[in-house]
Amino acid sequence: MLDTSPLTAVVERFADRLRAAPQSRLQRGAAAEALEAARELSVRAQRLEDPDAAAAPRLMPEAGIFVVGDQLAVAGQDLAQALRAAAACPGAGPDGAKAPSEELDEAVRLVERAEVRAMR
What is the 3-state secondary structure (H, E, C) of the chain? Predict the structure, then answer.
């Protein structure tokens, strides 16, 4: 089984920081940065869950600056679950797809970079 704890740890840390951030920081761009990261994690999860989907992935809605930490946490958990499922069924994805471990590493880096940009 693929260990997705690096992803869940970095997502939870960022989400907790967002939940504790003052409104002014969220309004200065932290919330927008986090929402962008949450949307990307969500899209990645959807593609892993249904790689042959004809429809475009559903976009996570903007629900406000005070819930973006929760949106990030949910998207991160969804992606972690999709990665574990993909790792459990090798060869189920499209040809040329990245290995779940590579996807995991990319997602961790994506969240780390978003956190740095959001919290500077």
Answer: CCCCHHHHHHHHHHHHHHHHCCHHHHHHHHHHHHHHHHHHHHHHHHHHHCCCCCCCCCCCCCCCCCCHHHHHHHHHHHHHHHHHHHHHCCCCCCCCCCCHHHHHHHHHHHHHHHHHHHHC
- Cβ neighbour number for residue 96 with a 10 Å cutoff: 5
Question: Distance between CA atoms of 29 and 53, rounded to whole angstroms?
Answer: 32
The dihedral built from the CA positions of residue 44, 81, 98 and 102, taken in this order, carries a sign that is positive
Q: Which residue has the higher pLDDT, 88 or 96?
A: 88
Predicted TM-score (pTM) of this structure: 0.90
**Burial of 69: CB neighbours in 10 Å, binned 0-12, 13-18, 19+:** buried
Query: Residue 53: what pLDDT?
Result: 78
